[in-house]
Amino acid sequence: MSVRDMLRSNDERFRALAVGLGPDEWARPSLCEEWTNHEVLAHLVIGYRLRVAGMMREILSHGVSFDRANTAMAGALAAARGPAELLDEFGELVARPRGLGRIFPPRLLLGDHITHELDILFALDRAPQISGEAVVAVLNTQVALPNPFVPAFHNSRGLRLRATDVEWGHGDSGPLVEGRGTELVSVLGSRPRMLSALRGDGVELLSSRISPSRIRRGG
């Protein structure tokens, strides 16, 4: 399966799951600092339809800050449209992405979407049902590619990482960190919530690298 096909399949699965969330669950804080689950959903919609020129205008209007622009856009869209409306649009955009959704590398979009799904599900103490193939694809991208939106490349340096539920590992030496693949995705993205689920003598070092200030709104 191509990464683009994997992205579409994963998005369709996420939408089917998200339709079942209730108003109280959408209003809960996500693991992405300052965003509710509703605002995370709004961000996913924006990422699939915003044009490059529109993104640049928003960044310039918010003091040349990507984070502030991203937060403002997600907050404004979530205030204007409820989760049901956003999920309807998300479903349409999965089939026919526009703007950034058409040109952004699909493996980076897959990582963004899965990380944000985990922001929602782990905040609600729900077990993810993401395919192992998709989780492995995200982990491989995270540890291999420096990304201004996701600090996983920095967070993983010098560690031996092992997933316990899928066939994935990274690094041949250094302190060990092991856990479920989705937990590793979330923590490497600087979400500390699932640190307690990880094991190994490298968890303390990984924990020291993570702080809320390192959570970028794009991933």
UniProtKB/TrEMBL annotation:
Signal peptide region: none
Any GO MF annotation of the entry: metal ion binding
Mycothiol-dependent maleylpyruvate isomerase metal-binding domain sequence ranges: 8-96
Coiled coil: none
Pfam entry (one): MDMPI_N
InterPro entries, per database record: DinB/YfiT-like, Maleyloyr_isom, MDMPI_metal-binding
Protein name in UniProt: Mycothiol-dependent maleylpyruvate isomerase metal-binding domain-containing protein
Species of provenance: Mycolicibacterium tusciae
